[in-house]
Amino acid sequence: MSSVREAAMPGDTSPASTVPSPTLADIKFSQFVPGIHEESQMDELSAIVDAELSEPYSVFTYRYFIKNWPELCICAKLGDKVVGVVICKLDQHRESFRGYVGMLVVVKDFRKLKLGSALVQRALAVMQSSGADECVLEVESTNTGGLRLYENLGFIRDKRLERYYLSGNDAYRMKLLFPLPAEMKEGMINESEMREQ
């Protein structure tokens, strides 16, 4: 996000001041917390997903993920504003304990901070600490940024799914096997540290 210049008032000869662009260090991460503020958190999550993703989701989809796996719904906030979220699940799939990234959303102005990678890394850390064998997800075949993000995290293209999205576009099913590589683990924080932020 580029620096924002404040508009000078007529007759003001002082130079316009600049507001520094936020960095990843300015972002606070937290897991979804069921309870008293649950509906307001749900509203924030659905608003950002509806605004940024092309696929429509019902409130029941959010509730399915969040009610069952609140620790795998991780929000990124700048001040009081939600600027990113990852929504995942973790359950038995045939003979493996499988994580699944259902939604990853980052507000456009914050994508250059590598916020999407930071959110997914936190979810992967929770999955691994919970005993996951693998994690899968789908990415639109035309989404080069998304494909690059997941490949940089160690995911591989497992299969192509024809006409997977409502737009008619294909998707790639991507897969990551646990345990995570040591260099990825070094950059992650553990679950208890995330709750404290």
Kindly describe this structure.
It is built from six helices and nine strands; from the N terminus they run βββααβββαβαββαα. The chain starts with a strand and ends with a helix. The longest helix has 15 residues, at 38-52. The model is unreliable at 1-15 (pLDDT under 50). It has helices spanning 38-52, 59-68, 115-129, 144-152, 182-186, 191-196; strands at 4-5, 18-19, 28-31, 73-78, 81-93, 96-106, 134-140, 156-161, 171-177. The chain is α+β, with helices and mostly antiparallel strands and 197 residues long. The chain has a seven-stranded mixed β-sheet. The chain has a two-stranded antiparallel ribbon with strand order 1-2.
Nutshell version of this structure?
The chain has a seven-stranded mixed beta sheet with strand order 3-4-5-6-7-9-8. It has a two-stranded antiparallel sheet with strand order 1-2. The longest helix has 15 residues, at 38-52.
